[in-house]
Design a protein that fits this description.
about 20% strand, globular, six-stranded mixed beta sheet, alpha+beta, single chain, 15 strands, five-stranded mixed beta sheet
Length: about 375
C-alpha cells in the first residue's frame, strides 16, 4: 500500500484547509463568535492558563477531520486523537455531543441545537464542513512510503493558540520574521505517528490567518507539510535562511511565561536577544522556517497534539523535538550528542485528563542537533 500514505497526506491537506475555513467563518460574525466560546473546566483545563477556552470551532474541526479521515480510511478508526472533548453545553444547559453527520441537513440540525436554535449560524457552519474541497499537491501525491495507514495514528490540534484565536488581534506577519502574538499564531495541526514506536512521520500545518486578502477584511491562509520515514524526507517549502553554524550565538524563542532562571541562563548564548511568541505550534513553526535556531520550554505545558505535526516537519528537515529533561539527564551523564526525541503513542497512565498526554519534561525544538548541547550546557544546574 505504498500509495496509501500519499493519499492520506492529500486528504489531510484538504481537511486542514476545510478546518481553516471553519476557523475563518467562526470569526466573521462577532455575535456568532460570542456563542462559540466556553471555558474548559476540571481535568480538561490546561493548567498553564487562568482561563483556557474550548470553542465550538475547535470541536467542529476535530470531529470533521475525524469524520472525513475515517470515511476514507476506516482502518484509522480509534486511532485519531484530539485535544477536545466533543461534549458541548448550549445556552439551555443541555449537553450535546458534537459529531459530523453523513448528511449536511443532519449536521445542521445538530449544530442548531448547540447554537440555541440559530439556524442561520448552523447552516453556515454545516456548509463549510460538508464542502467538497480537494487540495492538489504533486509532490505529496508522488510519495512512496513502505507503511500503510493501518500502521499509524493521528494527533489533531484543531486550533493551536486558541487564546490568540479568541482575542483575535489582527497583526500580520512581517515579510521577514514572525508575529509575537495575534491571529497568525493560531494554527491547525495534524500529525501522523507510527503506532509501534510513536515516531512522528507526517505533519500538516495550516495557518488560516497568514495574510489579509486584497480587501483588507478577510484572511488568506497557507499550509506546510513534511514527511520523514526511512530514506524518505520530503517537505513542501524552501528554508529561508542559513542555520546556526554561521554565527557565534543562537536565536532563542521562548514563551513569555518562561521561568526567570531559564531566561537568565539562555541570555548568555543568545547574544542577550531572547525572543517571545504565542502558541506552541507556532513557535515550533518558527524553527521549521529557520526564523529562529531553537525553541525551548522548561514546563510540561505542551501536549502531544501541540508538537506531533511540527515535529514531523522538523524531522523531514533533519531537525527534531527533544525532551528537555531527558536531554539534561544525558548531559549530566556525559552522553554528549544524545537526543531524546518525543514520541506519541504512550500516555502517562498515572495521570488524569489532558495530563496523560503532556510533554512533561519540557521541549527543545531544533533544526540542527548541535544546538541541543549548547542549550543543555547553558541550562545544566540552573533548573
Amino acid at each position: 500500500m505504498a500509495s496509501g500514505m500519499a493519499e492520506l497526506l492529500r486528504l489531510l491537506l484538504s481537511v486542514a484547509e476545510k478546518a481553516a475555513n471553519v476557523a475563518r467563518v467562526c470569526r466573521q460574525e462577532a455575535s456568532l463568535f460570542e456563542l462559540l466560546v466556553q471555558e474548559k473546566t476540571g481535568a480538561d483545563k490546561n493548567k498553564k492558563f487562568v482561563q483556557d477556552f474550548k470553542t465550538l470551532a475547535d470541536v467542529l474541526i476535530q470531529e470533521m477531520i475525524r469524520h472525513d479521515v475515517c470515511a476514507q480510511f476506516p482502518e484509522l478508526t480509534g486511532f485519531i486523537h484530539g485535544e477536545e472533548s466533543n461534549k458541548f453545553e448550549n445556552g439551555l444547559g443541555e449537553s450535546v455531543t458534537v459529531t459530523v453527520c453523513a448528511h449536511k441537513e443532519d449536521t445542521t440540525a445538530l449544530l442548531a441545537k448547540v447554537l440555541d436554535g440559530d439556524q442561520n449560524a448552523a447552516s453556515l457552519l454545516s456548509k463549510v464542513i460538508h464542502q467538497d474541497l480537494q487540495i492538489s499537491d504533486k509532490t505529496a501525491e508522488s510519495l512512496q512510503l513502505s507503511i500503510s495507514p493501518a500502521d499509524v495514528g493521528i494527533w489533531i490540534d484543531p486550533i493551536d493558540g486558541t487564546s490568540q484565536y479568541i482575542e483575535g488581534k489582527e497583526e500580520e506577519e512581517p515579510e521577514e520574521g514572525f508575529c509575537p502574538f495575534g491571529l497568525p499564531c493560531a494554527l491547525v495541526l495534524i500529525g501522523v505517528y507510527l503506532r509501534s514506536t510513536g515516531q512522528p512521520v507526517m505533519g500538516v500545518i495550516n495557518q488560516p490567518f497568514n495574510r489579509k486578502d486584497f480587501t483588507g477584511k478577510g484572511w488568506k491562509g497557507r499550509h506546510v507539510w513534511g514527511v520523514s520515514y526511512g530514506d524518505v524526507k520530503a517537505y513542501s517549502f524552501t528554508q529561508c535562511r542559513p542555520l546556526c553554524q554561521q554565527k557565534d550565538y543562537l536565536s532563542v524563542l521562548l514563551s513569555s511565561s518562561e521561568k526567570p532562571a531559564v531566561k537568565d541562563a539562555l541570555t548568555a548564548i543568545s547574544n542577550s536577544s531572547l525572543m517571545y511568541a504565542s502558541g506552541a505550534g507556532y513557535k515550533i513553526l518558527c524553527v521549521v522556517q529557520g526564523l529562529v535556531d531553537v525553541y525551548v520550554l522548561s514546563e510540561g505545558s505542551t501536549f502531544k497534539w501541540d508538537s506531533c505535526a511540527p515535529h514531523a516537519v522538523l524531522r523531514a528537515l533533519g531537525g527534531g523535538v527533544a525532551d528537555l529533561r531527558e536531554s539534561l539527564r544525558a548531559h549530566v551523564n556525559g552522553n554528549v550528542g544524545h537526543t531524546a526525541e518525543l514520541t506519541y503513542h504512550q500516555p502517562h497512565t498515572e495521570s488524569q485528563g489532558v495530563d496523560r498526554w503532556a510533554n512533561r519534561g519540557g521541549i527543545i525544538a531544533y533544526l540542527d542537533s548541535s544546538v541541543i548541547d549548547k542549550v543543555v550546557a547553558a541550562l545544566a544546574g540552573k533548573i
